[in-house]
Amino acid sequence: MPQIRIVKVVFDTIIQDFEIPSFRGAVIETVGRSHVIFHNHLSDDKLHYKYPAIQYKREGNHASILCIKEGVEEIHHFFINNIGQVRIGNKHTALMVKNVSIQTCNFQVSDEFFTYQIKRWLPLHGENYEKYISLDGLVDQIAFLERVMVGNILSMAKGLDWFIEEAVSVKITSIIKSNWTYLKKKKVLSFDLIFKTNVFLPYGIGLGKSSSIGFGTIEKATIKKLAI
């Protein structure tokens, strides 16, 4: 059961969801591409497939950065170099810090279940999407999404050097909405839903594909829908 530090930095800059990749680019430009942890690309521009220790998000309407584990140690490179305006899309703005929060989380598998809401989760890509749409019936589709979620949790844990030996359980209780969105100019299906799991997950972290740019963010469950 690892203890992991998490730092959340919220800026006074207002952004939209579609501007998060531009916000990420602005931070990377400020820090410099030599700091791989900010962009997860190796020197030959190949992806470094590891759970992102620095995640770019919106907190309310504000640009924010979530730093996990080694990301906490690396964020000072941004503060050292953040001395002027940055470009986010077509606008230039100064990234002024609105607030900073620090917490230490005990990741664990429990005998009880925790309820979460996840927003803009991307469980379906490539073969996963083809398998999903081929399923006959909502029950089978929900079960498929639950298996993907288990895989996302295990992948997150492995990226944080936490190798879970216990069985991980996930139960999707409500699908709030599903939307088509664009990721790297391709249409992808995202989900907002409520689920239960026996794994403790701190609010704000991301699960699944493109969690580094705000997809699949874990939040407190505040929307109640009829259980599936």
UniProtKB/TrEMBL annotation:
Domain Cas6b C-terminal: 109-220
Keywords: Endonuclease, Hydrolase, Nuclease
The keyword GTP-binding belongs to this UniProt entry's keyword annotation: no
Xref: Pfam families: Cas6b_C (PF17262), Cas6b_N (PF17955)
Domain Cas6b N-terminal: 3-104
GO MF annotations in UniProt: endonuclease activity
Keyword hit for DNA damage: no
Name of the molecule in the record: CRISPR-associated endonuclease Cas6
Organism name: Belliella kenyensis
